[in-house]
Amino acid sequence: MLSRGAATIATAHDDQSTRSGPRWPRRPLRRRTVIYIAIGVLAYTAGLIAKIPARTVFPENENLRIAGSVWGGEAVYGSVLTLQWRWAPLTSLANLAYSVDWRLSGGGTDLSGRASIGARGYHLSRVSGQANGTLLDALLPTLPLSCRFDAEVAIDKLVFGGGSDEARGRMRTSPMRCGGRGMSERGADLPAMSGSIALDRGVSSGLLTSLSSHLRMIEIRLARSGELTVSPTENALRLAPALAGLRLSTKLP
User: Fold this and answer.
1) How far apart are CA 50 and CA 163, in angstroms?
2) What backbone torsions phi and psi does residue 142 show, to the nearest 5 degrees?
3) Sign of the C-alpha dihedral, residues 233, 234, 235, 241?
């Protein structure tokens, strides 16, 4: 009787286990749910960002016209230079900063790269292309001189305005002719040059040397505060005395 009863109880227990079915682990389901929620939040956030007009973030002025949104748009400066950008959401998430892929063209300039703005300051990377004196005039309109030249530019990384600066880049120019206020009518002529920029003792510094004589011609310094300083060396002054006493200094955004 006991064995038969035990068998009956065991059979009933087995039937109940069969009806209830296997117990599946819940942890994968929870992880999957979290992933879906995160994707939904990111998509919603991206949709909100896409609708923000670019001119509310970067105000227009008499020389700057802006169209499009923070997601993608363009800005035209002085009817010569056109800056186009496209938001890079994955890069923005990875760097915890607003990041865009951009292209600057017009007036003989054609540059492209990636830019980020965040708590670490301004960050430029993967910059390459051609530039000329028109770009210098547009970006630094307060300079007391104007130079005519063509240049090949490659900037691997340039970080400033934050706590950790970094600079790696190269440039090569054609022969350069400069003229402007406070200079003689003859102006100043400099040879074709090449150089690089790197971080030195907390300051991003660059040096342009003559391609023919390898003499130092132009010194460039970019401080953490964003102050850009360009000055000729003694070698440059011997070739172009009109540059004597000239030291260009401006504050980048």
Assistant:
1) 30
2) -90, 0
3) positive
Burial class of 162 by CB neighbour count within 10 A (0 to 12, 13 to 18, 19+):
middle
- Over residues 147-189, the pLDDT tens digits come to 899 999 999 988 877 666 778 899 999 999 887 755 555 678 8
Out of 23-32, 101-110, 112-121, 167-176, least confident range = 23-32
Where do the domains of the chain lie? 22-251
Cα 1 from Cα 10, distance rounded (Å): 14
Structure tokens at 43: 């998509």
Chain centroid, CA 64 distance in Å? 20
- In order of 188, 242, 243, 249, the CA distances from 58 in angstroms are 37, 38, 36, 24
Tally Cβ neighbours within 10 Å of residue 36. Answer: 10
Distance from the Cα of residue 209 to its chain's centroid: 26
List, for residues 23-67, the tens digit of each pLDDT value: 555 555 566 776 767 667 766 666 666 678 888 877 788 888 999
How far is the CA of 205 from the CAs of 29, 35, 136, 218, in angstroms? 54, 45, 18, 11
